[in-house]
Write a structure and sequence with these properties.
- The structure is a single chain.
- The chain has strands at about 5, 15-20, 30-35, 50-55, 60-65.
- It has no helices and five strands.
- It has one domain.
- By secondary structure, it is mostly beta strands.
- The protein has a three-stranded antiparallel beta sheet, with no helix packed on it.
- The chain is globular, with a radius of gyration of 13 Å.
Amino acid sequence: MAYSVKSKKSGKTYFLHTKEVTLAAGRKQRIYYFAGVAETNAIDALPEGYEVMENARTGLPMLRKKK
């Protein structure tokens, strides 16, 4: 089951996804993002050391490193 978060502002549910991208210099980096539909690259848990926050203006969830 994919990790999900419900927006306090809109009430919509978002699912956490991850994928590996290649940057301009050829370096690979793992990115995390939320989407409205759980797809094949959805993950089951938050990555260690991260927490979910919600953008106050848009209501979209975002990951940030724990403080």
